Amino acid sequence: MNIAAFASKRFLVPGVLILIVVLLATAPLYTALGTIPLMTTILMYIILAVSWTMFSGPTGYISLASAAFFGCGIYASALLFEREAALLPLPAVIVMGGLAASCFALIVGLATLRLRGIYFTMFSFGLLELARRLFQYYEFYVTGVRGRYVGNVDGNTVYYIMLAILVATLLTVYFIRRSRLGLAMQGIGKNEEAAAHMGVNTTKVKILTFALSAFFMGATGAIVATRWLYVDPTIAFNLNYSFLPLLMAIVGGVGQPYGPVVGGFAFAYLRHVLQSKTPYYFMLVFGAIMVLVILFLPGGLASLIERGRHRLGGLMSKLWKGDQAEHHADT
Amino acid sequence: MIGFIPKIIFNGILTGGIYALVAMGFTLQYGVARVLNLAHGEFIMLAAFSTLSLYVLFGINPLLSLAIVALGFWIIGFLLHSTLFRKLLKSSPSLGAFESSSLLAAFGLLFVIQATAKIIWPGLPWRVTFLAYPIRILGVQVMANQVVALSFAIGIALAFYFFLMRTRMGKAIRAAAEDRATAEFMGINTDRVLALCFGLGAALAGFAGVLYSMCYSVSTNMGMNYTLIAMIVVVLGGLGSVPGAFIGGLILGIISEILNWTQPLFAMPAFYVIFIILLLVRPTGIMGKS
Amino acid sequence: MPILEGQGVTKYFGGLAAVSHVDFHVDQAEIVGLIGPNGAGKTTLFNLISGAIPFKSGGIRFKGQKLNGLKPYQICRRGVARTFQETKIFADMSVLQNVLMAAFFGTPTRISGADAAREVTQALEFVGLSAMSATPVIDLTLVNQKRVEVARALATKPELLLLDELMAGLNSTEISEAMELVTKIRDTGITIFMVEHVMKAIMGICERIMVLHHGEKIAEGTPQEIAANKTVIEVYLGEEAHAGS
């Protein structure tokens, strides 16, 4: 019976998760050279995919602006480094990146989240271009700088910061899901009018979550800038970073919290493998996968996993009940 | 400055004419088929590159390409809708769900088309000289190809407008867009109408791309800007309104030219400001219904 | 003072007046019915009251305060709850979660998790759904889904409840049960304003009935008065008679 208690979900899942985090945190000690940069990239994509899902998943408002918030963080970082020395301690730079993105999201949200989803999506599509042009304008007319150098930060440090941001993002998702905010978001996604009639201030909920999800994207951008070293508006604001997190989340499955994690891992790794061929082939493949998944598996991999789990769960409960029945029969 | 006004107007109408075609196609695809075609700009880019390739490889006059490309795109659009989007429509529990999933599919399509173009046509932006000699009209010096493009742009746009408003097919399209159930009831095969409309939208993108390639240099990255412009024009003119898209396109074209004279970098952010103001004040646009 | 009153309420859709200069009032703890042929403007009127659609002409007051321009969530928090003609449930969420949302957000002041849970339990007991709290709402029968809608409305602690065709699609027994439930709700002090097509219910529990036709109020009175009213019979009951019901 004691074994059964340990095997129960309450202890198993958190236990496994803690184990994973410990393994990841100690990775620099035992992994081969070159693995850490790859893992850093994978973590980055997972954060972006999870952040995207944080807002767009439950509410159903599809945001195409991830790259804009990511870019905001990158640029905030670039602005805070002068001649490769940070004006603020690194954690502060990360937070500033996050806040910059959040503020941007707040403004955009206030303007567009009161409207129908389709207008929001259209506007978010152009946000990237807008941000890029604004920064180009700023650099051209105000500062006259043609590209910024961001200070070099040790690879392991970048990795740890990325890991910390990922843990923070996942914890946020976890707590939101269990909170009344999460309930409200789900309600908005399933039937916004009904939710509004039950007292949910739908606009406020949407804007808050949108800004929150942007924070993590911005923070990630801020640390990534230190790997890229050279940043200018065209580099910072790149449509791929709107598409890839979305692809990862959809293929992974937005219905489950682990969906974007699975998708992020799979595609980040796939991209790494494919990118050694010509850079355009992998985008072609990814675009095609997007179309195919939308057509044939809209629930993503998570829906497959859940289906499998139900079948497995049914099997397990049959075995368990059978076991119980025998036990009772003895007494 | 005064002397520049005719030039601005001319360029504005040319740009606006192309914008109008782009926007009419986009609004048709959303208004009737309910697909927010994020890949619209990529179709324009594809048309532009195809025209150039046809000209360089086979010596085909771009004006002839207008017909070839438009027809080809109409067929591609029709097939795309009949297969991909119709399946999506059947498997979507609600219109909102369909709008979301078709949008995402279009997003994927964007990358498929863009990546394909980058593979087929690698290298620097292209420009081919076609009718690239200056002529004088009403005291303004312009390029011959611009005059041709402008005439065709306005001509096609007006022709399309009349098609939509006066012909039986056009009325059927508008009926299907207004109220699908009633249209079905009246015997209109709405599935086919939706696919035809989507195809027409693609054909309009084709026209725009061909005309664009006659006057300006093309690059595989040009698509996204045009999709954005389509969105802004369409919101300006009213989502789903073809006349609104036409007028909105012209207005935006002229504004764009005025801005190009003053602060070129400022154009896009300015459009965005217009976009935001529109969304805040009257999201249904000039001619849209609320 | 009536708990809900409207003066000159008008709403145009395009060129068509869906609701035209309607004056109405509902007194505290009354059960008032709103009837009329399809397209008469009944749901539109409800939509105006609950804030689902905006309007500029005319005024609607709840407990003396104007509702014009308020958003649905604000109107809900003031004490007006409603159900919908097409049940707007949160499909794959459980009954508990559906009602919990209302309990958390529908009250003017923030309540604790424990209090919310208690509200939910009470509301579910009241409508008779306690046994099904974990079931996904999409799996329930129509009558139970409607019970969920009512429980949700009750969980927002309303003083006025707008019921939009609650009985639609229910069989005879279910209608009687629903009538009992509505009366029970009124007996707790909540005022009821209900749109209905089911005559048995309207005549059975309403103390006063209003009749709309083409957006205008054409009659008002007790069930007996309405049943005898020639205009109403022509316009509405006559239609039903022709339909052979």
Blueprint (SSEs and pairs):
The complex is a heterotrimer of chains A (331), B (290) and C (245).
Chain A: H1 2-7, H2 9-25, H3 27-30, H4 35-59, H5 66-80, E1 81-82, E2 85-86, H6 90-112, H7 117-143, E3 148-149, H8 155-178, H9 180-197, H10 202-228, E4 230-231, H11 233-236, H12 240-252, H13 259-274, H14 279-296, H15 300-330
Antiparallel strand pairs in A: 1-2, 3-4
Chain B: H1 5-31, H2 40-58, H3 62-90, H4 95-120, E1 134-137, E2 140-143, H5 144-166, H6 168-178, H7 180-185, H8 190-215, H9 223-237, H10 242-262, H11 267-281
Antiparallel strand pairs in B: 1-2
Chain C: E1 4-13, E2 16-26, E3 31-35, H1 42-50, E4 57-62, E5 65-66, H2 72-78, E6 80-82, H3 95-105, H4 113-127, H5 142-155, E7 160-164, H6 172-187, E8 191-195, H7 199-205, E9 208-213, E10 216-221, H8 223-228, H9 230-243
Parallel strand pairs in C: 3-8, 3-9, 6-7, 7-8
Antiparallel strand pairs in C: 1-2, 1-4, 4-5, 9-10
Helix pairs in contact in C: 3-4, 3-5, 4-5, 6-7
Explain what you see.
The complex is a heterotrimer of chains A (331), B (290) and C (245). Chain A has 331 residues and is an all-alpha fold. Chain A folds into 2 domains: 27 residues; 209 residues, no CATH class. The mean pLDDT of chain A is 86. In chain A, the strands form 2 sheets. Chain A has a two-stranded antiparallel sheet with strand order 1-2. Helices cover 75% and strands 3% of the residues of chain B. Chain B is globular. Chain B has a two-stranded antiparallel ribbon. Chain B has a single domain, classed as ABC transporter involved in vitamin B12 uptake, BtuC (Orthogonal Bundle), CATH 1.10.3470. Chain B is an all-alpha fold. By secondary structure, chain C is α/β, with parallel strands linked by helices. Chain C has a 6-stranded mixed β-sheet with strand order 6-7-8-3-9-10, with helices on both faces. Chain C has a 4-stranded antiparallel β-sheet with strand order 2-1-4-5, with helices on one face. In chain C, β1 and β2 form a beta hairpin. Chain C is globular and about 50 Å long. Chains in contact: A-B, A-C. Chains A and B meet through α7, α12 and α14 of A and α3, α4, α9 and α11 of B.
